[in-house]
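Ligand: adenosine-5'-triphosphate. Inputs:
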Amino acid sequence: MFTALPPIPLPAQPELQLDNASLLRQGKRVVNSVSLTVPFGAHVALVGPNGSGKTTLLQVMAGRLAPSQGRVLIGGVDLARLSGNQRAQQIAVVHQHEQVHGQLRVRDYVALGRTPHAQVSHDESAAVVSRAVQRCRLQPLLDRPMRTLSGGEQQRAAIARALAQEPRILLLDEPTNHLDLRTRADMLDLLTELGVTVIAALHELSLVQRFAHRVVVLGEGRVVAQGEPSQVLTQELVHGHFGMDVFYLPLPHREQDIAVFESPQTAKGADSVPRATVREPVAETLA
Ligand SMILES: Nc1ncnc2c1ncn2[C@@H]1O[C@H](COP(=O)(O)OP(=O)(O)OP(=O)(O)O)[C@@H](O)[C@H]1O
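Predicted complex:
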């Protein structure tokens, strides 16, 4: 008779670690010798040009793609040793293109996040789902089939489903896609208030500072630089890696200068803007 193995004990606040992880796809190293340690509760932005490996690296972190070399560890345990259910109790993923479960009503879609927690009482699970729904402001949409939602509404539903999963580590691929400006700001604030590890691939560099303690810059599957956003997103790095210029501007109500990104042509006239400053701290560049 088949007996399920007992879950492997993990710390309540697990660290996520990539130990020299690589992934080959059709002979190409799309994740290349990545080593990262993400302490519990950190907010990390993954940035890089199109095709630099953000989505693939998230999939490797989630255990959906096994590294061809190296390891992914959660709380010191190799992700490959965890059952699918135990992994899903630890890690939730919001994909860039979530599969739309057309006929499913929003309430049932969000409740799918409880699947790995079948042992929890119905009432407790219902309370978790209800909190996720409220946080993502989905109450008016609960009885709507998923296929009738706008792109931004679907994105909010996908994030609510991931919150209902109560993960220790939340991985998001372009979570602000389709969101209007206000919803985007609210969503980033929500993600930073969850009290769990959040790792998000972001295209919009201007959102990095708002969201992340730490930014990891990818280029051709490698970590090009990582560290505190204002230290890493220097003029030299942004220009060299993204072909853009960065200006740090003071805002009266913010302690930190905010980063504004311009294409080099647009930025030509910026010398005449008196408050604009170009900071050039040295990036913490990894080999
Ligand atoms: N299934 C696959 N088979 C072969 N190559 C793939 C596959 N999926 C992705 N790739 C390649 O891996 C590289 C990294 O792709 P990935 O989607 O991870 O990049 P990304 O940084 O997320 O890109 P984007 O910003 O465009 O979303 C790209 O060169 C891509 O063409």
